[in-house]
């Protein structure tokens, strides 16, 4: 399977009637509303290795439209409709053409995704449709359709992406896109919708966005690089830090009412809990501390701070909610908590106490209850230990979620599971502000197990209703920005393949993935991507689509896989041209300076500041009128600083010629006096005058 062609009839106010032939396996044209497909011999089918079916690179200056074109491929159906449908008017129209395979009779089967007011009726005309199909499809602004292609005609087989079945799979499930974008680089269209959810939309191929890499996958990618499994991207060691960003003092800084009414009471509760800030276990004087106390104190401190965080950042806003106040308080709100202490002691991690204790409405009353529970636990157990904190956390958790959300509540559940996993980690890795591991060539089963669990918790946080993503973090330290970015890309590739492992065609989209990379890594980018994809276990076909500003990257790409984007005219309409169809130019193996001089990258190969300086220097040499030793020495000193040998040589040659000319002119009178023959003197006089830029006067002596 393969995405082989795209046609953009209109998108926005600057893309009109642009064809994008994406395949080396087919010659596809759309001319005069006739869409033709011809299979051709592809000598480069394995050019990018076994892991990449096809590769397309979009190149152009900033603002040329690279991200927009990638979005056209990568947007979900919902986003297409929101972006392109204005009330009853559809503003954009385009189609994407896929080769699906051959049927039992050897005829080609093609899938077409379309967006338009009348689907594709104004885009091309060489198709045969049934009446029922027409009536159905006219009601759909965006849809996927399946055709046979025979004798220059696309013939409907009466199937759409959601009901064309092959080997028990729907076509919409067989093809998928993975947009490996950065969370801070969403286009203006995608930014409105946030992170893509993974709900399937059967009308077209499934799209997923990967703005963040999975923590465990990132760890595995780091291990892969440390083991030198990806040539050209070597790492020595990386520190992994597991920490939290729990901030229960936030409202002290931002909510005046909270400070006036509740800050003192919360501080009282804080002093009743065993926080590490008051337990200096690292003191040299503390000789009685056991070896295991560091881990125990860390876990107790985490429990206590998490309880305070739920109180301040979750329970207080619930009590402050005007909608809850309007409903009125239940009779149980003012009840003595001690009547229900046995109930509280037996709460489970996902229980709600609303039915028994009423909905939270008065934060002061809630704080009073918490203080009573703490005092009871301290009296019963002799101290506030981990068991007490577990009971207290379940109680506070039961006060911050609705009854109908019982089965999905994960705030306390996540805390208990994380702490359970922490007990399997040796004492040596615990520090006051987090848990630190060093990743090197030696495997670390404790870290691997914990990160695998952590990644699982992150993946299910939406359904599980947990705050793991806001409260708990994993930091990969000792990585440069370029290393971090490269690891992130490799991890996202792995994530996208794991998330689409059943697909027969996976299209990976990356918008300027080589940004912020060292030039050497930019030069190695394609080679590293090829290796990363070859290491993945994926039975289907993979296409890679990316944009770039890097001539280093472009020198590794076949010209038939490069698309040049340029905006022309006063209305700055976009023109998209495949490089091998552009005056026979090529990029593959091209000299980096030749590529940089290409107008799609930059106007010049050196900085604009020095370009102006060099032009001024050349003019200054040309306009030298007298042999001034100081000025010439200054010019020579600047020429010697120039790094480009060719430019340096030309300027030196021009200066030396000018120096010789000026020497002749300075000795003009002495030279003439030395010549005794009148005719010879006239000839020399004429030459020197011409050298000086004046006309020779034959009447002068």
What's a concise summary of this model?
This protein has about 700 residues and is of the alpha/beta class.
What does this entry look like structurally?
The structure is a single chain. With 701 residues, the chain is of the alpha/beta class. The protein is 42% helix and 20% strand. The chain contains 28 helices and 24 strands. The strands form 6 sheets. Strands 2-1-8-9-11-12-10 form a 7-stranded mixed sheet. A 7-stranded mixed sheet has the order 16-15-21-22-5-23-24, sandwiched between helices. A 4-stranded antiparallel sheet has the order 18-19-17-20. Helix 9 packs parallel to helix 14 (363-381). The radius of gyration is 36 Å and the shape is extended. The termini are far apart.
